[in-house]
Amino acid sequence: MAQIVGGIFTSHVPAIGNAIAKGLQDDPYWKPFFDGFHPVHRWLAAAKPDVAVLFYNDHGLNFFLDKMPTFAVGAAARYENADEGWGLPVMAPFPGAQALSWHIIEHLVASEFDITMCQEMKVDHALTVPLALSWPGADTRPVTIVPIAINTVQHPLPSAKRCLALGRAVHEALRSWKSDERVVVFGTGGLSHQLDGQRAGFINKDYDHFCLENLGPAPDALTRHSAVDIIELAGSQGIEILNWIAARGALGESVREVSRNYHIPISNTAAATMLLETVTALQKVA
């Protein structure tokens, strides 16, 4: 079976991509955020994952309001990036873990999830920025990818409980994948932020820390709020915590926190990074 080595949870603000492109990692404004990735880099160098399964939300590059799937899973051989209008450099295509994608899709459908299967799929900053943060300056693609997009834009939105269940079904699929590949899971977006309307600039530190404290040991605590409740608590774009919740479900029950970073603001956003490592039965006994 495939081995799930851990999960990386991080913000995906387009401004982060611009900071990377301009080499601003040590700028006083950006340094507190980028410093949070040093433990992630060390961990990835040791863990050596082969595949990344990424839970993220599309911002109009692949889906728009006229066609918005609740859950969409990529099943492409490769994934193109394109100009989104943020001034971000267009990245080279990402290779897809196509066989694993179909295995996950088949398991999700058998588990009664109605998903959209995408044999062609563009990926935006919600996926490209976290990968660039995790493997800075990589000339080649260190992992193949399985992108899983969650609707955080068009109401009605999926519930946190449903997203956690989705992640747990993906975990089952990964555990049944007959391969020795090492898998890292990503949850991207957030934390609290609202970019428009009367509450533009809204940040809720208390809710953010509630999420960070419970994500590892008690993810079900994050499902006590409805999607509308989360928008009230975290802002209209803070609903991206759904991606984190789904990714946490994909890790399984036993995890330990390796590192955590929380910094505000970045582009009116509460930016956070968390690294959770899966714990095997043998490690628990030790």
From TrEMBL:
Q: Where is the signal peptide?
A: none
Residue span(s) of domain Extradiol ring-cleavage dioxygenase class III enzyme subunit B? 7-269
Q: Which domain of life is it from?
A: Bacteria
GO molecular function terms listed in the Swiss-Prot or TrEMBL record: ferrous iron binding; oxidoreductase activity, acting on single donors with incorporation of molecular oxygen, incorporation of two atoms of oxygen
Identify this protein by name.
Protocatechuate 3,4-dioxygenase
UniProt source species? Sphingobium nicotianae
